[in-house]
Write the structure tokens for this entry.
Amino acid sequence: MLPTLSADERLRYDRQIGDGVLTDEGQRRLKGATALVTRVGGLGGPAALALAMAGVGRIIIAHGGDLETPDLNRQLLGSEAGVGKPRAEQFAKHLRAMSRFVAVEVIDHEPDDAEADALARRVAIILSCPADFEHRLRLNRAAHRAGIPFLDAAQWGMAGSLLVSDGRTTPCLACAYPDVPPFESHFPVVGAIAATMGNLAALEAIKILGGAGRPMWGQMLVIDGFRGETRHIRLTRRPACAVCGGAPPATGAKISSSSPSTRVLGA
Ligand SMILES: [Zn+2]
């Protein structure tokens, strides 16, 4: 049974219920949903903020470590006053200050395999925003095992990517990257592209949770902001994929034979 909306909530969401946005039922679906966002830096921070402002009822954020000065070119949930302090709790405080209608849970570390699986069983969707493939692929596996939608956002320099999987029938992150690419820990990134990809991930999540629009299932959107180019890649499911290879093939999805040739993007 879907939750109802209070008069205050109806006023808050007045501009996003109607033609071309959410239905009343869709808004109630958002309220009844739980989303996991990990991590909540340059990509996941804007994503979590957009989910909170849109009215996703419960948001679980996971991020370890302390906020550092170089984070402040992109981690918009932080502030100069928070440098040297743990990220997760101060970021949650910011989210709670933005909306009293949303519950925010904090995990002050990166989930391991068992914790990722347990979280995936609790939530309706995972927004994967870590920098490294180890964590991104772990979240991808957890989402697929739970059969829930999985959005993976990544960035490098002035470029970003967003993969949208339904966690069941569409190609997964491991299909897109069958060999784990080398990880560059100190890569360049501009906050504007991080926020762009994080917000696009949130938009897909809002569409999926709220039953609005047409999610980009099985696709990777790549934005090369440096060159001013954007493209959609229809991902190919790999029958030998270690994560989703045993599941039935996508139905109704146009699958091309091309593999994503995008640059490896971190977070
Ligand atoms: Zn796969």
Q: What stands out?
A: The longest helix spans residues 191-210.
